[in-house]
Structure formats: C-alpha cells, structure tokens
Amino acid sequence: MSRTAPQLLDAILLDAARAALKSQAYAEQTIDPHAFARANKAGLLQLVARVRALRAELGQNYRDELTETHSLVVALLADDAAVSAAAAKKLCDPRTIRAARGRAKSSAKTGGDGEAQSEVTDARGTVPPAAMRRLERLERRLTETRAARDRARVQRDYANAEADRLRRDLTTAEEDRDDSLAVIEALRAELAAERARAAEWVTDVSAAAAVLKTAILPESVDHPIIEDIDMDPREREAVATALAARPSAPVSVADPKLAAALARADVAPDVLLSILNALLEPPAPVESVWVGEPREIALTPLGGGTDIGGSCMLVSVGGIRILIDAGMRANKRIDQAGPEDIDVALAGPIAAIVITHAHNDHAGYVPALTAKYPTVPVICTPETAAILPTMWNDSVRVFDRARGQHVRDDEPLAEPPYGTVQVHAAQRRIKEVRCGRTVEIAAGVTVTLFPAGHILGAAGVVVSAGPNRVTVTGDVSDLAQLSVPGLVVPDVARGSDLLVIESTYCWPRISNREAEVEKFVRMVAETVGDPANGGRVLVPAFALGRAQEVALTLRDRLPNVPVLIDGMAKDIAKIYEEQTAGTPRPLKIYGEQVSAVQPGQRNQLMRTFHRGVVVTTSGMLTAGPAVTWARSILPDPNAALLLAGYQDEDSPGFELLELAKTTRKATFVLDREELTVNARVAKFGLSAHADRKGLSSIIAEVGAHEVMLVHGLASAQRDFADNLTRRRFRVAPTRHWELDSFSRNRKALK
Description:
Elements: H1 5-21, H2 33-39, H3 41-50, H4 52-61, H5 71-76, H6 81-91, H7 95-109, H8 115-118, H9 129-201, H10 205-216, H11 233-245, H12 256-265, H13 269-280, E1 298-303, E2 312-317, E3 320-324, H14 342-346, E4 352-354, H15 360-363, H16 366-372, E5 378-380, H17 382-401, H18 420-428, E6 430-432, E7 438-442, E8 445-451, E9 459-465, E10 468-472, E11 498-502, H19 513-528, E12 536-540, H20 546-557, E13 563-565, H21 568-580, E14 594-596, H22 602-608, E15 612-616, H23 625-633, E16 640-643, H24 652-662, E17 666-670, E18 673-677, E19 680-683, H25 692-702, E20 706-710, H26 714-726, E21 731-732, E22 737-738, H27 741-749
Parallel strand pairs: 3-4, 4-5, 5-6, 10-11, 11-20, 12-15, 12-16, 13-14, 13-15, 16-19, 20-21
Antiparallel strand pairs: 1-2, 1-22, 2-3, 7-8, 8-9, 9-10, 17-18
Helix pairs in contact: 1-2, 1-3, 3-6, 6-9, 9-17, 10-13, 16-18, 17-18, 17-21
C-alpha cells in the first residue's frame, strides 16, 4: 500500500535528518534520527531546499512514490531551488497537505478535473504547469513583500535619523536662544546698574570730587585710590610705594572753563585740590571702644553644614539677624532646593543678606528671599554684584527645564522658587561693598569683607558686635590662581570668637596644584599636536571660576593652541575682563588665541574646528553646550574629553569616567543617544579650595577662640576636627553656637 503524502514527507525528512547527523557538527554526539526529525522539521525542510545534492538523492530514492503524491512534496525535491524553497515554506504547516488533499478528494467525487488535476504530478513526475505558475506567483509576492519590508525599514531608519537630527537642531536652537537671552539679560542688568550709578552720582559728593580732580589733574585717573582696590596687601603696599616715589608737580588746571572759574573766584588750584583730596580720602575713623553691656552673638548653620550645597549661616546679635549666603542644593526638587533649614530664618526679620561669592550653592536662593523681604539689602563685592544677574537669570532658565525632575508621576510639576521679575527685584537690592570696608547693619553691629581667593569677587565676612566677632570664610583658597589672588586674613578677623571655615577638601591628602596643571597641559598638547595633524579637546567646566582658570592656563602655557569658550562661561569671562580692567591685576582672556562661540555659530564650528580646545558648560555633562560638543568629540579617536573638576555620582561625567577606567572603546549613552567612545577620557583638578594644609594655615593665622567646620562631608570633618583638637585648637560642633561664658571670661583675662 502506497504511503500518504504526510507519511512520505516524514520519510523524506527522516532521511534528511540522518544525512544531517552524519555531518561534522554532530560527529561526537549520539542522537536519535526520529526524535531529531520531529524536533527540527522546519530546519530540515530548509536544509533540503538549500542543498541541491540532497534533493537529488532524495528524489532518486522516492521517484516511484512521487508520481502519486501531493504536488508540494514533489516541488520540495525539484531541481529549481526557488520552487523547492517555496514548497518548504508551505510544508512547515502540516495542515497544508491535509487541506489540499481534502479538496482534491472532493473535486474527484464531483467529477471535476481542474484543481484536483493541478495538485498532482503528471506521469513523468514533473510539476504541472498550473502548479508552477501558482508557485511562481507566490514567489513573486514573497519577493515583493520582502522588498516592501526592506523599503519600510529604510524609511523607518531614515525617519528615526531625521528625528534625531531635528531633536539635536532643536537643542542647539534652544541653546542659541538661551545664549541670546543671557546676552539680553546681561545688557539689561548692565543698563540697570548704570542707571542706578547715575542716580547715585546726583547726590554723591565723592563722585563729583573725583570728576573735579580729574579736570585739575587728568593724569590722576591713572592713580588708583589704594583703599578702593581689592588686592593682596603686598600689592597695595607696592602701589603705595610707587605713588609716593613719583615726583610732585606743580598744580595746574587742565580744563579751561574750570581754570577761568577758579580765577574769577580767586581760588588757587592747590587749595581746591587739597579740599578734593580730603573729600576723596577722609581720615580713618578712630576705632571706637565698646563701653556698654556685652552684645550676645550667635551663629546657626541653616544649610551647607555637614554637606556641600545650599550654604546659609544665620548670625544673630540680639534681635538683629543677618544671613551669610543663601544657596541652592543640587539634585532636589526645585521648589525644595533652597537651604535645608531656611524656615528658621523666615520665622523672623532679616536685617541683611551678605553674599560671600556668586556660585549657585552660595547665592542661588537670594531672589526667593528678596521676594519675601523686599527691603533687605544684599551686601557683596562689586565683582560679585556684576556676576550675580547672569547666574540668577541662568537659574531661571534651568528651573523651566527642571520642573518635572524629582517629582512623582502623580504629582503636579514643581513651581520655581523665583522668576525673571524676582531676579530684577533682587538686583535692585544689591549693595556693593569693597573688601576692607566696614558697613553698619544696625547700632553696634557691623560687617567687614575681606578677600577669600576662590573666584573673582569671593570674600570672607567678619560680623562684629561690640568687642565680639564671628568670622565666616565662605569658600577659600590660600593659593593664588591665574584668575584671582589667594585669601588675605585681615586684622579685624584675627582673634575672633568663632571662625567658621569651609572644609570641602579637608581630608588628609597630598595635593599639588602645579602638578595637576602640568598634567592637564601635557594631555592637551599630546592631543592637539601640530597644526597639520592635530586633534580636538573638550573641557567641560563650571561656568564661573573653573572655565576662566582653564582658559587663562591655556593662554599662558600653550599660546599657539586655539581655544573656544562656549555656554555661560563666555559671558562670565567677559565680566572677568571688565571687572579687572584698570586694576593692578587686569585679566586678558579673549584675544587672537581665545574666542567666544557666538549664537548660531556652534554647528558650523563643530564641522570646521579640527584642532584646539573647547571650554564649555556644564562641568558634569548634565546639560548645555558640553553635551552637544561631546556628541561630536567622543567618537573621534584623535580627540580627548578632559573633565575639569568634581563629578557628582549621578552625573554623566562620573559615569563616563568610570567607563574610561575599564576600557577605552565602549558605548556611552548621553542625553538618550548612544555614542561610541573612541576619544581619550580623563580628569584633572584645578581646585579653587584650600586643602587640609591650607585650611590649617588659615585657622592658625586667624587664631580664633573656636573653629566650626562647614561645607564638607561629615566623615572628613570628623577626622579633621580630631586632627585640630590634637593640635590644641578648640573645635565647635557644626550646629548652633553662641558666645558662652568660657569664651567671654577668656577674652576678659586677655
């Protein structure tokens, strides 16, 4: 009895299984052919369709049975590989043979000879023409379907690439918009400052005296007023010596109108000049001696005590409450990112806010406070006053992008702590005070600023209440940088009742800033190479301080290497130049070698800037132009990405550094885009903070009765406190402090 089509197909597949098991791949294994055939039907059908020799052998073995069986079984063993492949695909479904056989039987019962005849082979065992045409139609449809699928895939890939390109263009456009808005806001702030300065000059006798003195002695504009310069005392002494050494010249009036007026009034020019000098340089006030009851003074850290960020100190003298700094905390909801315990300050009046420097973690929350206290003065150095509007306006833009961060899905978006209106209001509350000047906050309560190093305009603060004094350093650097001199301890700070000092890098370690500079310069030189075959270096850096220090270092050490400054760092660099012009330490950042990336220029420069350094924000690769530049630079094997400072553990910069430790070539996801990392990745430090050695030197020089460590990690602070205690310094816990009887009695004995 002849076998049915399914039985014949099973026999063919069993022989195909035996042939497959004889191959080298299965030579070392003992496998049952029947089980193998049952488990791998689809694979064996494809094997038969692909191997012509196997089809020929099976066709010879089963030639007698092929004349009266299903046409698909016959087609499976046909010489034409396409016909065999089409049949193999259909035979993967066992219902195919049963359904076709049923139709054939039904047609035979009705006497029909069309479809039934076309489903069987002719007497020669070949596929009938009708079946061949049907298989050819199926093959054409399959080919067309595959082609359509491939076209759809290409279209999909192109659409995805176009969407990525448009997203990058949108990001670039937003960055250009932000750059333009920053320029506009900076110009508005500059205009507001000029208007305020003009309004002050209307009643400013000193300003009028300076104008008249210039009219008498035009060269006097080249003579800096020593008391008004924020400089190292040694530099101040050198300037004073140089001025004293100048030969005196007879007084003559250069302005003809003023000369005629003096002649008519019968006033000698030297008499007027002596009056003007008395107005411009009044005699130093006699130091007052406190004769009343001792003024109680207390200090409470409201943020940035045993961590870094949201720095804020509340100094209380009776009912007089002064805030020193009011910064933002990173990685928090924007409506909860102010100083951790700011509610303590908001529970009562605030007489003044003193800002040590313009970094966001020390000054970023101020507009939110001035919105609640619209008449409170904001005291800071002129340099800090010039920088703050740019920092605050940038924060407003960041708030808009960060409203959904750290917010649960079931919660509404976070509300920003302030907006542009509040920034403008805060600008109007700024009161510029130069270092060395003393400002009275209330009767018997004064503040004095002194140079702290760190960044341009950074200052420490001495709060005095009668004979009692608290000194708060803010962030400090005892070492001079290219962008700013080091800290200067003033006499008014020496012997303070309490010294509150930062402890960012207070752990025991050996730091060598010059070695880090050499390392950085060497890596840049190696990557950039010569003009013929050099590469690019991306330096993501913090916009305020670090970026300018990097640019000045490159200008000083590698004068032939082109440097671009992008992002907010370019605006801060301009402020650095403006604020130091006419001082003994003028900073020249821009020039032939160093230039700013103008709005709308970034995309073109990424295509054409092939050799040099790009310094841009943000320093941790979280946002900003640094992300856009990194997309271009990371895949480039001739490039390098050099991170310029601390990287938060949740930041892309930290992740990239960890990746670089394991292997050089890897993939890295940046802003949802997967990049191949072929560029060199490294980190270097140009710290603007004093290390343990520097902090110890400052503590010893101030010689305060007690020391409180803030702005650091608790574990490192404990170790440093133990070290100070062993060296006979008295360390106060980082919490509420007030002048106790022990300190008062010790002062009395002295």
